[in-house]
Specification:
InterPro entries: Fun_TF. The chain is mostly helical. The chain folds into two domains: 189 residues, no CATH class; 168 residues, no CATH class. It contains 21 helices and no strands. The radius of gyration is 22 Å and the shape is globular.
Length: 424
Amino acid sequence: MNQQSLMFLNATGAPVLSRADSRQMRAYITKSNFAKRRQRISQVETKQDGDSNKTTEQAFHRRKKCQQRIQRATPGTSPTELPTREPSSSTPSVQLLRNFRYLVFLDIRPTVQDPVEKAWFDLITSEPVVFEASLAGGMRCWGPDEESQQNADLHLSRATNLLVDRISSEHVPSDAMIGAVMTMAFGERMADNDAAWNVHMEGLIRMMQQRWHHGVSELPPVFRSLVALDFINHLLGFPRFYHTKVVDSLSSHGDQVISALAPISANVLFLKNAAGASQIGRATQTSQDAQGPLQRLQLATRILREFDDPYVQATSLSLEIYLNLLWPLLFPIDIESVGSELQDAMSEFRIKACPYMELTSPHYILGLIATKKGSPARTWFSDKLQGSVQVMRQSGWSDPLSLMKRGLANEPHIHDQFVALWNN
């Protein structure tokens, strides 16, 4: 077993942790270790561990050479081409940040102009814990090869050790610590490790509670937006950031957006059970018992439309499309118009998503289904998905849409429409 991947915490006598907090943090680390151990046991070892000391710089240069070979094989400008010449004003620190953005987000833009996105990158690079967590997530999705996965394990181990050190020395978890845990959870979701994902989300809940205990009442806005945007993932059964306990905690502390979203899933489930699986897409009326959930869903979509936030708008519009695809006669909408609105809302996102975020976001699938063939909106959704699939395949992933397909399997009516469109 790789000893570097096990984390240990000695909180005995820590000056800023109560006895209860110490027990909770030991439990967090123990659960994380056992989740990783179970994952390793379930996997078939095909070869001996390689050298785990490969550096991120080496990984970057390997990827750069691969991209240059692709560039030579395919004349013209590739959307994933690495910049080969830096402006004369480029400094080593600027180049390092560009390399980091490319390694983690496959982002080849020379600079980031949007102030919201710049603040996001500033947060990521502000502290080692979130920096290492981001590298772990990026390397996890970099490629299925053993070397990339070992590098991901190495950075994840460093991030967890740094996180433990910060927890042991601070009264209030910082924004960077919250970001690190959410990033680590996302990486485990991409690795399809439910047990480790739940461990990280439970840790996030305890951090939120500790912040509230010390009077820090809100999460940074970008994190709330990620939780809201992930609501459709939750409905489909493969959440990345949406956890019911996180949502309950945010709702109990007065978050209006999350409070509007929280009861929707229960109402959707009730309607599914009331209509029956065989009635999906054909139900024309509901029972008396289902009238209440139906009306609450209709009210919820109207309430969500009122929030002036493109992430919440995208969630609201995707929800309308989702409900219409399930029950077109119970939720009548001009689906092509709503699909175009969804594209407008997603175009307003201030932070550029990485390919593995896009390929696990059902908003693109719902927009593709809803929009008219040949329309600018349909082309936009198709290009986004095609571009991300191309990038991931170049990294060695044979089926970049596997997680999405697994989620859509819970909704065969939607799954079949998407597969038919994608294959054409």
